[in-house]
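Problem: given the chain below (1207 residues), write out its structure.
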Amino acid sequence: MAPYSSVTLLGDTLGQRHRHLNSLVRAAGESGTTVQDVEAEPEQSAVDRLFKIDLAVSLRDADYILRNLKHDDMLFVSRALKARWLLDRHDIINPKYLENTLFPEMIFPAVSKMKHWLHINLRDPAKCQEFYEYYKQNSFEFAIKFLSHCSNHFILEEVPKILTKLSPHYVKVLCEKCPTVAKIYFDSLATQDDVKNRYLKQEQSYYNSIKCVLKSDADVFLDNTEKYFSLDKFKRFSPLATEYIVQRHRSRVINKLGLYVAYILHIPTLAARLSVDECQEVVLQLARASYLKHWFQYKAVEPLIKRLHPQKRAAFKKRVFVDKDIGELVEKWPYETPSSPAAELDSDSHVFDDAELECVSMLDCEPLCGFGGSRILKRSLRNAAYAECLMQCDAEYDDCMAVKLKTDLDRLFDEFRFIGFDHALQDLSHRVGSTGSTDRRRDIFLVLVSKTGGRIETVTALLRLAVRHSNEPAHTRASVIRSLVKRAAVWRLPADVWQLLLDFSHGLGLDGSAPEAPCREGLHAVVIRQLLAGQCEPRIRDAFLKDFSTLAEYPLKPNERKCVADNLQNMLASAAVDVEPKVAADRLDKLLDVLKVFRIRVEASSLAVKTVTALALQDKEVARPLLERLYNAKIARRDLLRLNMMFRRDEEALLNALRHDPVALEVTQVVDILTTRKRHFDIFTAKLVVYFDQKQDFTTQLRSALKEQISKPLDTKYTYVKLARPLASILGQELKTELNKLDQTGTEQHVKLKAQLRACAHRARPIFNLAEWGWSKAGVKAVATHVMRCRETERAEFIRTLAAERRTVRVALALSLRSASGPVLDTFTSLAKLRPAAALRAALQYFRRRGASAELGVWDIIKPLLSTVDLKCRKRLRRLLANTDWIPNPIKPAYITELYSAVHKISRSRADSLLQDLSKILPECDESIENVLLQMFDNTEKKQNLSTACYDSDLDLDSGNTDIGNPAILYPAIYIRYLMLSKSNEDFERRFSKIGIRFIKQLEILRSKKDEKFKTSLDQVLESLRYNAAFFDIKNSSCLLVIEKILDWLQKLLPKEKYFQIYVQIHLTMLYFKAVRQSMKQMPEVFADPKRKRTEGVEAVGFVFGRYIAKEVSELVTTYFDSIIELYTKALIGYLENMRYGASREKFIGNALKGFLADGVGIQRRLAVYAYRRFRYDVSKDMVNEIEEQLSKDKVIEIFVHAEIYS
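Solution.
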């Protein structure tokens, strides 16, 4: 064994020093040195420890590696994880040992690092299965990373159990390992609603995740494609996927040709892989498919038609698109088409869901319609009308959409679209001579250009015709030339035909002169032709450089592209010589455009790089954009390293300098970069202090420069923040000495700097022990950084210590939340005592993150704070507290009630929002809700007694409009719904005497003052009478009493003859309630099942509701007159329209019509005809057929059926 001495790295660059360290490790191993021989030796620098770790890795010394995994310095932890052979040690690498023994003694970042290392490197199926099974219950996101490395047999057993947890990413990962997972996942969509609902939220992503199965198990992929491919949402396959499918699975494409061609495959690639005869047959089959008529157009199948020979193409297009000689049409899809899995019936909106009514103060006061309809009702009417419009219009081409009008040119194109060039030339050559309009003649030439197909003989014929019209205006000739260049590649024309083009384009600048009309494409054609010939005339070159183009937009052949690219480079390089630097930079920028567009590989010795380098030496600022472009294109980075340093100010540039040329780093430049940085330079400073911290190294010079920099007065306080982090890293062991010096000075500048340095002390190596400073002196930032990295074994002690101090109690809470078993309640108790406002803020964030798993005892701790913390001056805290969606359901009613009591006198807008939230969960509220309602009364009565002038303008701090002095009731719905939830008649009488009477009095006050919000409030009262939450709970026995009370009150105010439709609306609500209770009595098993309730329950309630309507209509006709049916119909239609829109409403209305027809009497059944006329587009086709069949068989109302429906 050779004697050990401190490691001194040799070499100029970072790579050389790395290699030298590796050579020292190898030499030590070969000489028989063991870790025990060097472990006790003092370490002068971090490199000494790296040497020992590398030696332990090479000698497989597990004990020393484990000790370094427990180190506080992440550099040593990361280095120890180079020991991949640890994966073979099952006594160490098993989840029980790691969780119970090793991880509790490692700092938190080290645990995260090692977990990442495990799932990246562990590949043994048995061990991966062990880790997966250990973590799947409590840490599924970590466990799932091991599943893809388990055996296929285990994967197939486990996947069905976790389908609801799989994200698109992990579906893809598992499919790559075991393609059968794709079949299991997509088969589950038909049976598991939870999986289906998650799939529908990210449908495209989940489908894309199984594309990897195409080559490993194409049948599974294509089966799922033919079943679940969303025709209106998904994108077509890529050319590569299309080519693979056509080559390997052509039979599938042929069997379902319309589906694959119209929606799935990349048509140009498909056309290229089929024979000419196959392309022709495909077009004919698509033309016969009437179900594809909205898609089948010439443009859609153009790639297939272009495979035909030009001489046959025109006849075939005429046969298909003009003569329609395609054979017998196929009206319907001959096979089942794919579609997205059917969503659950009205998962978002259902007739049994209660409407979310707004506070009256939030509503605009719009006039009521005849029977009490409000803005809410009008909005639903608009939605229904729009939905009906969508149903009547075609799915692909909505009749309601604006259609672009065709121009004369479009119509001329359409006229000759399927006619060959010869016939078109013969016809149009006569027209062009007889047409007086210049624009019309231009259109004729443009159509002829499009018919040439780029063939030389057709272009020749066209140019001979064009030359005879050389006296056309310049703009007309320019349009023709531009189109001809794009379509016909005119630079390949024979010399005589080329001369015809030049003759026709006289005066358009094709000779380099100033053009009479813009003809950029014509000049480009000349340039391309001359570049292909090897030389470009100076006059043309100068004109081209003034309006430069890379010419890549033209259809050049491979040999032409190479020739044009080479000659363009030479042209631009020569044009950049002996000119002003700005002009040269512009020419070189165009040269780089050419290199990029033509994808030319550029070496460091190329002409472009040499020219840019020469310009940079001449004028750095002008050349700077060019150097940036070269760098971003990864061209000559190493050769231009020093030049690039003048504009590269990011960490990557500094690291490149360390790797390749450290001498390129200038101390003043690096200090300037660190002072003005916008991001951390942690990697750069870490490399410096580890590998370049020897005498005369760059780090020594930089350390001195930074010390000098902080001794100067700095521009802003933010400069200290930016300098403190890199300075703490670079000072290392000197940080403590430097802080002692700063402690002796008391200037404001040094106080701020000391605080920032202590906050960044964790960046220094070796890591400081904050206990030596004392936590008070170290500062909260340094303490927080230290304890949030602590070991699990130290956590409890840290939490107790931190929770006792006001400055650190929030850190204690964050630390306790890090583990599932942390003392959350104790820490919240300390936080509530020391920092009440912070406790409220922390509790909301805690509930948001933990959700249903949150400790409900936290609510008991913060509940008193809502009444003690001054929320009036804490606007942001009020906004945070109003996020009631974060609150767990068991405590949400109590939370909203308490919060309303705290904020209703401070913020009107927040209070209104809380009332809406409270209304949604009213059935779960206890008797404390009465306090909220009484407070609302008190506020309203107070406003009535105060004038607008003397009312406290600070009442609402959130908005400038407090509505002071307005006695309007904020939220009528909450009073009505509260009364509806009475459990008995006695409970109802108590509630009505305490709440109901005062509520009605408030309404009467509004009416007596002719307040415009009385109508809005009354409308909300009527809306809230249909309260499904109360109707479907048989414990609420007083729903009809509430409706009757409101009805009795209205009869004193509103004459029935004048407001008949309002009374009909109330009676319909009573009938709806009776239908609900009757259906629940007859079918208890249906309403006991939530899913059946929302499907079969809708049908049952709707049918009974229709029967009750029939009975009431009969009574009305007997009491009044027969034509009252027309008045009743109007109210009924409005009532049904106001139900929540969706598929359940369609089912409800359809069954209500069926129920009415079942019990309707004679001609009274015409009401069903009126209602069906309005809702026939809202119900399913099967329901339409059933209802129309019943109506057509009823001879009594036959005349109404024909007049209202079939007319």
